Every structure is written in C-alpha cells, then in structure tokens.
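Quick illustration for those who missed Monday's session on complexes.
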Amino acid sequence: MATTAVLEIEREEKIMPTILPSSSSTSAFTTQEYINLENTYGARNYHPLEVVITRGEGVWVWDTEGNQYLDCLSAYSALNQGHCHPRILKALTEQAARLTLTSRAFYNDQLGLFYEKICKISGFPRVLPMNTGAEAVETAIKAVRKWAYTVKGVPADKAEIIVCSNNFAGRTISIISFSTEQQYRFGFAPFTPGFKIVPYGDAAALEAAITPNTAAFFLEPIQGEGGIIVPPEGYLREAERICRQNNVLLILDEIQTGLGRTGKMFAFEHEGIKPDGITVGKALSGGFYPISAFLSTHEVMDVFRPGDHGSTFGGNPLAAAVGMAALDVIVDENLPERAASLGAYFLERLRQIPSPHIKEVRGKGLLIGVELKPSAYGARRFCKALMQLGILAKETRENVIRFAPPLVITRPQLDWALERIERVLTTL
Ligand code: PXG
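Prediction with PXG bound:
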C-alpha cells in the first residue's frame, strides 16, 4: 500500500483499543509483592523498570493495577507483530492441541512448510532452526568455521572470524568471547579463541584484518544493543566487496534488525547486498515462543552432516506453525512498509523536539535511538518519566533511549506518544 494511503486510513482509526480491561485490579498480589517475589527468588541479572505487566494487545500493555501503556520496546523487536496477535495465537493454540514436539528423530508435518516459507521470504536456499538468538549465532559460528576447514582449506584450528567492536549477539561463552563490553565478560573467562575485532563502520580496518585463515566477517547491519548505531551508507556494500575478493563469508546478524523492523524485510536489503548467511530470531515468533534460525547458501549449510549440530526443541511443529503465522502477518500486514513510512515520520518528528538534552536522533524504520548529552544525567530517568505518562521505553547503554514500537502501530498512536515524549524531553 502506498505510504499516503496507509496514513490516510490511520487518521480514521482510534488511538486506543475499543475493548479496555477493567481498571479495577484483579491481581492476587500488589505490584510490590510481584516485584519482591522476583527479587527474592530470582537471579539478579536484570534491572527492570518497576511496572508489572499482566496483559498485552497490539501496541498496548496493562499493568496489574489496570494502567495502560504504549509499548515502545517490543521486547527488543520480538513483538513486531504486536502483543498476542490473533492470527499467531490461533496457529499456536491449534497446533498445541494437535502436536507440539517430535524431536528431530522423526519428520513432522509442519517443519518443511515453515522451511519453504522462510527460505522463499529470505531468498536463502537453506535454513537451520534453533530456539534463541544466541543459538542461531552459535550455529552460524560453527557453520563458518567448518566451511573454512572443509571448503576454503584453512589449516586445522586456525579459522578466524572478524567481528565489530560494540557488538551484541547474545550471552553464551563463545559469543561474549568476542564482546567488547567489559560487563558482559567480567568473571566469565576463559574465553573461546578465534575472533578478531575491528571498529564498526570501518571498511579499511576490515580489509586490513583479513588473513588467509579468515572464515567470515560477522556483524549486525545496525547495532541495536550498542546504542542504535547506523553504519555509514555503503559500508555493507563495501564489506561485501572485500569479503568476496578475499573468499571470506559475510554473515549478518538480523536477529534485531530483521523481519521488517528497519523498513525492509531484512536490513541488508537497504544496500542491495546478498550476504552468505543471516541469523534471525525474536519476531520470527511474534513474541509467542523462542524461535530462531540460521539461513545460508547451499555451500555453507552443506557442511553440516547428521549429528554435527542440533537441538531438542529446534524445528518442533509448534515452533514451525507459530513461525509460519508470524511470517504471514509480517507479509500480509505490510509491516516492513509500515516501518519505513511510520519510522521516517517518527524520526522526523523526534528530530524537531526542541530539547536541550538531545545529542542525536538516529535509526532506520522503527528502530530509533535518541542519544542524550552527558549533561542529561542518563536515559533511565527519562524512561521512568515516560512510564509515568503511559509509555514503556528502555535505555540502551547509558545515554540512549530506544524507541522500537510494534510495527502495527498507527500514526495517531505515534502522535499520542510523540506528544508525551516531547513533554518529557523538554520539561525534565
Ligand atoms: N543478536 C542480536 C543482534 C540481538 O539483539 C541476540 C543476538 C541474542 O538473542 P537471544 O534470543 O539469545 O537473547 C540479540 C538479543 C537480553 C537482551 O536481555 C538481548 C537482546 C536485546 C536486549 C536484551 O539479553 N538482544
């Protein structure tokens, strides 16, 4: 649908959902009691904002006291389709009532259909399903290493993978082994060897780091956790050229940027390139279920032989059914196009906010970061103030507020949010 047509229709729509939950709380515990339970029994590995969410629908969530919020985080882009999308819910419940898990010891009647759909949508001929994003990344690492030894001819145990500073790809030991963030690594040594780090956005540094033993260059098309860092225009094209010239695989982590978030189905499409493989996750289930995958060429994927790699739950029929519905929603509801048009509008309006705190507003599609000046004393206090006004957003790094609402958001809903965002950024 043309951009103007999308926006015209949305002007007619209501901002709030028609069915509001009862404002009187039906929760068994108070907000503080729920928080205390998590703090008493759980590991202290997160620092959440003090809101206890009990229900979600589309772009909205409700807390246990009946307060309503617009979700501007989308579970770090896992909810591109919005909360509890009815079509995905239907696929989940129907499949859950029929068959959930077979293990990969047997075939199931959903997996092949899911494979076909994701391969056709992504343009890659082969897929390997896993569960979490980190597992998809581990799969990519194993694939490119084995490709280096069995196809490229790198001597045993010498394969190198080039990655970028400020990356984020998950929390396993091998993945934090190539993190440049001290907190992610401190106390977790010894680390996995075989990674080389170059500055993000610097193609010359990539070229200089390549050796005959380089298997792959692995990076995010936009660094999400690193603070919504958009590399210079042409960087991915240049990286592709350098990789091709040196027989090095180009693997992109599209776990946060993929599936419509940046205004294209995959962020690599912005530069018209064709990587050798990508990792996807998060929105591949629309938030219902952990589903991830590594997608690649025949040459790369064919390194795997039976028994080389796997997962009990990876590729189970419930995941496959949910994954198909989640992909259908992205395509049928034109979510990439929505992200492109609404994201451009959101970015423009954010840039017009006359706030003394804003250093830079950047992003692509509906993956947007507002970087605050050091004098703003951190992004968290702004996120707390936004929460008071009914907007859930989260800081990334110290000074960046991330705005990444579900891609089903409408323009009136964005205007509703912008009014509040402006109020917080100009009065705090
Ligand atoms: N790659 C990218 C680009 C990511 O943003 C992962 C891989 C790992 O996905 P899993 O499903 O293993 O978390 C991510 C994850 C967190 C957290 O709580 C994770 C992400 C973003 C914010 C918080 O660990 N992104």
